[in-house]
Amino acid sequence: MDRRDFIRATTGIAAAAAIPASAGPAGAADAPQMQYRTLGRSGEKVSLVGLGGFHIGMQKDENESIRIIRSAIDGGINFLDNCWDYNGGESEVRMGKA
């Protein structure tokens, strides 16, 4: 199993584990609905599952990183972690492009 397969597998497992069986579909008949939590007192809703940015700048192919980020967003993830220090800023650049 390579890194890409591991990320896909663990993201799916984490998302599935966080969603109760009573959660309804989100567009597709078999797609679970992302759950959200309120962020502090801001009132903003963030996804229960987040996407860490450190690994985003490590793929040899920038397009692979962009596909990972877009897949996360398409799945309802709106909590994305990043830092200018990750991979010399490359993680932020790729997240910005996505």
What's the gist of this structure?
This protein is α+β, with helices and mostly antiparallel strands and 98 residues long.
Detailed description of the structure:
It is globular, with a radius of gyration of 14 Å. 13% of the residues are buried. With 98 residues, it is α+β, with helices and mostly antiparallel strands. The protein contains three helices and four strands, in the order αβββαβα. Strand 3, helix 2 and strand 4 form a beta-alpha-beta unit. The strands form two sheets. It has a two-stranded antiparallel ribbon.
**Main sheet attributes: strand count, strand direction, barrel closure:** 2 strands, antiparallel
The percentage helix is 25-40%
Q: What is the percentage of strand-forming residues?
A: 5-15%
What is the mean predicted local confidence, pLDDT? Answer: 81
N- to C-terminal distance? 25 Å
Number of helices in the DSSP assignment:
3
Low-confidence stretches: 21-26
Structural class: alpha+beta
Strand tally:
4
Helix and strand string, N-terminal first?
HEEEHEH
Radius of gyration: 14 Å
Shape: globular
Strand order of the largest sheet: 1-2
